[in-house]
Recover the amino acids of this structure.
């Protein structure tokens, strides 16, 4: 049966109460494993090692040895955490199956690979009884979302913590601002704007000796099957803020457009460089989502919320958390925290306290919200929430040129991949 929000909530409601923590005394070492040693994975490892006084990084995995070695070197240079790093040569694992070795050796696993692999890794970690930090997004397609939903239900039953990398939910200022909106500070929410305007993106050109898979993996951000496209990989942050404001209510349908107008070279894979999506909620409210990655342009990463009594700005910029009404203007002036660190502080406190955190529902559905928008832009069709959740489109199989009914292939460096075409609205089909 296809998982749904209702089945997830039902499973959560009947899940067993949290068992006493095995680590409550704080004397036992919590062993941490890192899977995915890029910049975000390295950052997450550093934050994990600062989140608890008795924690050690004991194993690392990446598809590429040079990325793993660079990550480890960078971590060892940080004096505040160097003593907590105990990654021996035989605990450094490389390749597509390296995640299995790391999971076997740790208590807490940090998942920070390209999001194509998040469902596979999260499922394995939950089955092995490990606590999890999962970077956003948690999937690139609907089958991946459904897999993660099931894994998070299982994690709840096993009293495991699953903390999401949707870090704005852990920012004190965002928390306070969203709470005020939810409490009615601007009245009923009518319109939401989620903006993510950036100055381009990174890319890697293919080297002669690289196989298809090596090239795609080195240049992962630029291929939809690995990243989910920009609308999913990065813009999910502010789409999630809007979902948070709406108290977990998700749109019933979306329509939109997008394309490539500047980043059009082969090195930019098959993802778009701009999107514009309009989502409609059951009560008639609209979410307008706009993204762009064009060099030499102004940036704006924010959510703007308009209600019947006023409006609010939610942005990471200075003085970017405000509420304005006819009666008053409010701006957040409370304590400022490092949200990336707070995620890990709360994760490790939940493990020590035996009170698991499970961010599974919102990290899955906000990922699906972003995928829904991509579907609408790629196909040029109106996509409903039900269509998005029940889609059978498997992006890895598409990159192989395989049919959706074919058996799931293995990840392998010799796998032949097509250079996926750029989706054209009206031609690309909903699957």
């Amino acid at each position: 049966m296809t998982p749904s929000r209702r089945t997830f909530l039902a499973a959560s409601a009947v899940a067993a109460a949290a068992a006493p923590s095995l680590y409550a005394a704080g004397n036992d070492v919590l062993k941490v494993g890192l899977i995915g040693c890029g910049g975000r994975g390295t950052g997450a490892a550093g934050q994990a090692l600062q989140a608890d006084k008795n924690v050690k990084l004991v194993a690392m995995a990446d598809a590429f040895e040079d990325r793993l070695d660079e990550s480890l070197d960078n971590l060892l240079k940080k004096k505040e955490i160097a003593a907590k790093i105990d990654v021996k040569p035989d605990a450094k694992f490389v390749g597509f199956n390296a995640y299995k070795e790391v999971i076997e050796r740790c208590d807490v696993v940090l998942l920070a690979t390209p999001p194509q692999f998040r469902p596979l890794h999260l499922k394995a970690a939950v089955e092995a009884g490990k606590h999890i930090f999962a970077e956003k997004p948690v999937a690139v397609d609907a089958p991946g979302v459904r897999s993660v939903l099931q894994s998070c239900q299982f994690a709840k039953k096993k009293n495991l913590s699953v903390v999401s990398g949707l870090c704005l939910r852990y920012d004190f200022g965002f928390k306070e601002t969203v709470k005020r909106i939810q409490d009615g500070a601007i009245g009923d929410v009518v319109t939401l704007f989620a903006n993510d305007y950036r100055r381009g993106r990174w890319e890697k050109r293919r080297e002669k000796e690289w196989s298809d898979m090596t090239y795609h993996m080195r240049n992962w951000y630029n291929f939809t099957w690995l990243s989910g496209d920009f609308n999913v990989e990065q813009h999910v942050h502010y789409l999630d803020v809007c979902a948070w404001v709406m108290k977990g209510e998700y749109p019933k349908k979306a329509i939109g457009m997008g394309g490539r107008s500047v980043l059009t070279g082969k090195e930019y894979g098959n993802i778009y460089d701009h999107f514009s999506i309009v989502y409609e909620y059951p009560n008639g409210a609209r979410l307008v989502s706009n993204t762009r990655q064009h060099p030499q342009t102004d940036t704006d990463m924010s959510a703007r919320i308009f209600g019947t009594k006023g409006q609010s700005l939610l942005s990471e910029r200075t003085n970017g958390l405000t509420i304005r009404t006819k009666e008053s203007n409010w701006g957040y002036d409370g304590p400022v925290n490092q949200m990336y660190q707070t995620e890990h502080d709360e994760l490790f406190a939940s493990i020590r306290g035996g009170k698991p955190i499970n961010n599974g529902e919102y990290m899955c559905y906000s990922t699906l919200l972003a995928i829904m928008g991509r579907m609408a832009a790629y196909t040029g069709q109106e996509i409903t929430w039900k269509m998005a959740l029940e889609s059978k489109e498997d992006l890895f199989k598409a990159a192989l040129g395989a049919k959706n009914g074919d058996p799931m292939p293995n990840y392998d460096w010799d796998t032949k991949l097509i250079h996926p075409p750029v989706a054209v609205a009206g031609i690309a089909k909903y699957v």
User: Anything to note?
Assistant: The first helix runs from residue 5 to 14. The longest strand covers residues 189-198.
